[in-house]
Design brief:
Blueprint: E1 5-12, H1 24-53, E2 57-63, H2 67-74, E3 79-82, H3 88-101, E4 106-110, H4 119-128, E5 134-138, E6 144-149, H5 167-177, E7 182-184, E8 212-222, H6 229-233, E9 242-248, H7 255-262, E10 265-268, H8 273-283, E11 286-291, E12 296-297, H9 302-310, E13 315-324, H10 329-345, E14 354-357, H11 358-363, H12 374-383, E15 387-397, H13 400-405, H14 407-422, H15 427-437
Parallel strand pairs: 1-2, 1-4, 2-3, 5-7, 8-9, 8-11, 9-10, 13-15
Antiparallel strand pairs: 4-6, 5-6, 11-14, 12-15
Length: about 450
């Protein structure tokens, strides 16, 4: 089984006059805020590079601003949570403890002030937690730029003179009293004072990966889908100019390991289909994104068809025709209803394998973090940009839910959810309706 790991980035919303205040005499309030913005973006970029290589969930703990502002600033990939009340030690202890309580085996927390702390150093810290309780990245000013834990240790955050030159020494003393096996990483400088600014000139920046316009990135959110993965991935992995990212939401059946072993890029995410797909889009390298359910099979020649559809003038989003994996009059009727809805209303669902360019995805604001209807909302946003086109080629979707509940009941539940969404019923309520509707009748 893969190791449950988390990287937590501690930062503050870059409001001029509120961040990097010791640099304001040299840079001005706006310049100091711009530097904070740059350092946070680069820290996240290093984390994303690491998340493509090993199982790692990304979380941003913020102070100032709100979640919407943070998403607009740093993107949709991480989970955002406020730091909450208390001094620095209390806020760090809370974040680390919560991650461990939520099932992570190794947790690393980093600030944004040390630009030389890259993905390799983050990986080194995570690996060290396999044999140590505590990992610290010493800073030259007597503090630390990184702290990692494999078990909760609140004592190391208590009685520390935060912001002073004795932070590391006091933390090490507390770790010794608590009996923690501790590993120290390389000592690095922070960017805190005007005299630190020259360090930026020779500091490596994360590589800027320009999207490959000829590459299609297939993003597959998955949760306990090991039974379906071999068949779903088989027609995808050997195609030229195609990459496949399976974004696992915390499966317990080996989905992550199987995806990796089959040849896909396996990524870890917090649970939630929208969140998983947004992370996959952030990690993808293709200029075209295709979002595929793990129990849906793409047709032969799907890649050429995606390129053909998106080349048409004015197309904002494409999808495939819908087909269930079992025959019968009822299934045929459902397929015809889906076809009619898609062609007449331009409203396909996610099980039709939605695809669009990365640029269109960004313009649509990505997937809204809703517990349900995230695919429907993406299509509605995309329609404001251009046409929605359905390919004549069908995807073959598992009919497990349809068989379990019956075609009529499944259709009625689906339509009730859509109606409730348009009437403004809260998505959390719609999710409860959906989950209630998916239980078989006694």
């Amino acid at each position: 089984m893969s190791i449950a790991q988390r990287l937590i980035i501690f930062t503050r919303y870059p409001e001029p006059g509120q961040v990097k205040t010791r640099l304001i005499p040299a840079l001005g309030a706006s310049g100091a805020a711009d530097l904070a913005l740059r350092l946070a973006q680069e820290t996240l970029a290093w984390g994303l590079l690491l998340a493509r290589r090993e199982p790692l969930r990304l979380e941003v703990r913020f102070d100032g601003g709100d979640e919407a502002a943070m998403r607009s600033w740093l993107g949709l990939a991480p989970l955002y949570r406020p730091q909450g009340q208390g001094d620095l030690g209390q806020r760090m202890a809370r974040a680390l403890h919560q991650a461990l309580q939520e099932g992570e085996e190794r947790v690393v927390l980093v600030g944004i002030d040390c630009p030389r702390r890259d993905d390799r150093l983050m990986s080194q810290a995570l690996q060290a937690l396999a044999s140590h309780d505590l990992v610290l990245g010493p800073a030259q000013d007597g503090g630390y730029y990184l702290v990692g834990l494999s078990r909760s240790a609140p004592a190391i955050f208590q009685g520390i003179a935060w912001g002073g030159p004795e932070v590391l020494r006091q933390t090490m003393a507390a770790a010794g009293r608590a009996g923690l096996a501790t590993r120290l990483l390389t000592t690095l400088p922070d960017i805190d004072r005007p005299q630190d600014l020259p360090l930026l000139e020779d500091t490596p920046r994360p590589p800027r990966l320009e999207p490959d316009p000829g590459l299609i990135s297939v993003v597959m959110p998955a949760l306990n889908e090991a039974a379906h993965l071999p068949a779903t991935l088989a027609p995808l992995l050997d195609l030229p100019d195609v990459e496949v990212l399976v974004v696992d939401g915390g499966s317990g059946d080996g989905t992550h390991e199987l995806a990796r072993d089959l040849g896909a890029t396996a990524c870890s995410s917090f649970r939630g289909r929208a969140r998983q797909m947004n992370l996959g889009a952030a990690l993808a390298r293709g200029g075209t994104l295709l979002f595929l359910h793990a129990d849906t099979l793409l047709p032969l020649g799907w890649d050429q068809e995606v390129r053909r559809v998106l080349k048409q003038p004015g197309v904002a989003l494409g999808c495939f025709s819908f087909a269930l994996d079992h025959a019968g009059l009822g299934a045929s009727l459902v397929e015809k209803m889906v076809d009619l809805r898609t062609r007449r209303l331009g409203l396909p669902y996610g099980d039709q394998a939605l695809f669009l360019t990365r640029e269109r995805f960004a313009q649509a604001g990505g997937y809204a973090e809703l517990p349900i209807m995230e695919d429907y909302e993406l299509v509605r946003r995309a329609r404001r940009q251009g046409r929605v086109i359905q390919s004549g080629l069908p995807v073959l979707t598992s009919g497990r839910r349809w068989r379990q509940l019956g075609l009529l009941r499944t259709t009625l539940v689906n339509q009730l959810i859509v109606l409730g969404y348009h009437l403004g019923v809260p998505p959390a309520t719609l999710r409860r309706w959906y989950q209630g509707g998916t239980k078989p009748l006694p």
